[in-house]
Design a protein that fits this description.
Blueprint: E1 2-7, E2 12-17, E3 22-26, E4 42-43, E5 46-47, H1 48-59, E6 64-66, E7 78-80, H2 88-99, E8 104-109, H3 117-126, E9 132-137, E10 140-149, H4 153-161, H5 167-173, E11 176-180, H6 188-191, H7 198-203
Helix pairs in contact: 2-4
Bound molecules: guanosine-5'-triphosphate.
Residues 26-33, 38, 66-67, 82, 86-89, 91-92, 109-111, 144, 196 line the site of guanosine-5'-triphosphate.
Length: 208
Amino acid sequence: MQGRCQFANKGFKMTTKRSDIGVYMLAGGKSSRMGADKGLVNLQGKPMLQHGIEVLQSIFSEVTLVSNNPEYLRLGLRIIPDLIANKGPMGGIYTGLCDSPFEMNFFVACDMPFIRSQAIEYVLAKAKDGEITLAGIGGKSQPLFGIYPKIFREEIRKNIEHNQLKMMVLIQELKSFTLELDVLGIDHEKTFSNINTPEDLVRMQTEK
Ligand SMILES: Nc1nc2c(ncn2[C@@H]2O[C@H](COP(=O)(O)OP(=O)(O)OP(=O)(O)O)[C@@H](O)[C@H]2O)c(=O)[nH]1
C-alpha cells in the first residue's frame, strides 16, 4: 500500500492507493461498430477511456492499458501490446496476466466510462484467492469488470490456442463467482453501460 496525504475539509486525511494488485484496462479492440478507436472518441470533452482511467486512478497507484494503438501513448499511461493479436478481450486478459507481478488483477473494458468506484471497491473487498471475481446485475455477470488470478494464465492460453474466445465459456470452465451490485444501493446499472456505436456516444454525452 502506498500512503498519500490529502487536505480534507477538517485538517489532514490519510488516504491510500492500492499498489498490491495489477490493474489493466482493455483498449485493443477493433471498434468496428464505432468506426474509430472507441477509447479515443470524445465523450463529454475527453477521450472516452479517460473517464474510467480517472476512476481507476482514484483507487490504484498504477493503471496499464492493453492496446496495440500507439495513439494511446499521448495519454501518458503505461501501455503494453497484446502478446497474441486479434483474440478479443480474452487476448487482452492473457496479456495482462503475463505482464503482472501480482496474483490478483483487476480488468475493465475501455468502453464503460461510467464505472463506479464503489463497485470496484466492493469487488476488491469480496475477492477470493484462486477465483475469478466478477460483478453482475440481475444474475448477469460482466466478464470485463472483475478480478482474474494470474494462476489462470495457462488455462486462458489454452482457450486462445483452441480459438475458444467466448469469455462466458471461459468463466464457466474456471473457478469463478459473481457479486451482485444491486446490494450497493448506487446507480449500479451505469457501471456497465458501454458505448459501442456512434449512436450510443451521442446518447451518452449528457449522462453522468
Ligand atoms: N487488448 C485487447 N482488448 C480488446 C480486444 N478486443 C476487444 N478488446 C477490448 O474489450 C472491450 C470489449 O470489446 P468489444 O466491444 O467486444 O469489441 P471491439 O473490438 O472493441 O468492438 P467491435 O469491433 O465493435 O465489436 C473493449 O474495451 C475493447 O477495447 C483485443 O483483441 N485486445
